[in-house]
Design brief:
This protein is of the alpha/beta class. The protein has one domain: Undecaprenyl pyrophosphate synthetase. 43% of the residues lie in helices and 15% in strands. The chain is built from eight helices and six strands. α3 packs parallel to α4.
Amino acid sequence: MSDLSKIDLNNTPNHVAIIMDGNGRWAKKQGQMRLYGHNFGVESIRETLKAARELKVKYLTLYAFSTENWNRPKEEVDGLMDLLVRSLSNEIKELSDSGVRLITIGDLDGMPEYCQTELKEAMETTKENSDLTLILALNYSARWEIVNALKKIVQATEQGSLESAKIDADLISDNLTTKGIPDPELLIRTSGEHRVSNFLLWQIAYTEFHFTEVLWPDFRKEDFYKAVLDYQSRERRFGMVSEQLT
């Protein structure tokens, strides 16, 4: 029996974030170069999107490329950029027909120009869709994001348009790249690693974590269902005690 039948569709997370890890190790097991694993990881994204839509998840954030990833071998980085453009070109019609809106977070200006062009076209094509928002974290760093938010706030106070007494958590959230996007209730990391790797550090303050040994190229709908079931087994108290939630 599929785990889908066990899921309470009235209690699914509104926003799921995923650290897609294990492409390189998967490729090594196949006796292949790391890019081989990245290419197979595209099918895992397709499967995850289908599962998220089935469960009526409204936001899905994928950690696609971090600022630290520029330190990888040039051949791998170039291959990842080409894979991004090729995948967008191949998948954009399916995304659009499925009601998926594509947006990005991160320093898009730091991406190669041909990637920026493809991304902007894809976002323009899907901007009216509302069933599911797919958020690609590209050239993204949570520390970079927070520093940029603080710079904007400091500049506003120096210009006199903001009083320091008005600075609060909501104001900081409004100056992040995720402005207008609800914080994720569930964060999934594949490949057995147990760290957040500079991903959404502000936004995951009350997020539930699910770690799986499955390498990303092997991640399928049933693995997504398992993560959601794990999420539903927990009591989310947000600093309160159980009795206050009843």
